[in-house]
Predict the 3D structure of the following.
Amino acid sequence: MLNMELGRKYAKAIFELACEDDKLKEYGADLAKVQQLYTQCPELKAYLCNPNIQPEEKKSLLREVFEGGVQEMVLNFLLLLIDKRRMQVFEAINEIFIELSNEKLGIAVADVTTVEQLSAAQLQELREKLESVTGKQISLREHRDPSLIGGVVVRIGDRRIDGSVKGRLAAMTAQLMAN
C-alpha cells in the first residue's frame, strides 16, 4: 500500500512536468523504455534497488545507459528516485503515469480475452466498435484463456462485456436453475 501511495506521488510529479513541457507522449515513451529494460534485465533492478550500493554508482550507471536515449527531465527524475531511494517503486510510478496520461489523452484501455489470437482486421473492428460505444480512443491489451471455449470477453475499467461461450453457458445455467 505504501508503495502505491509513494508511486502516486512521484507519478503525479512526473506527469505534471510532462504536461508543463507539453511532452506527455515523449515522457511516457521514455518511462516505457526504462520499464522494458527493468523487465528484461532483472539484474538492473536488483542493482538499482540494492541499499548497499552507493547512490553515485547507481546514478553513474543510469547516466551511462540512458543519457541521450531519454528526455533530460526523465533522466533527472530517475536520478532523483535514486537520491530518495525510491527505485523500488518505479514500476508503480510507471503504471500510475500511464493511467494519468491515458485519462488526460482520452484513451481507455480495453483488456480483450480470447481463446486464440485475433487477426489484425478483427482487432481493428473490435477497436472501432468499442470506440463508438465509449466515445474514447481505445488501446487494446490482449490476453488468452482457453477456458472461454470461444468468443471474447472485454474489460474496460470496471465495465465487463462477456461475449464468450463460457459466459453464455453460465447465464443459461443460471436461468435454468432460477426456473
Remarks:
- The two ends are 45 Å apart (CA to CA).
- The first helix runs from residue 2 to 21.
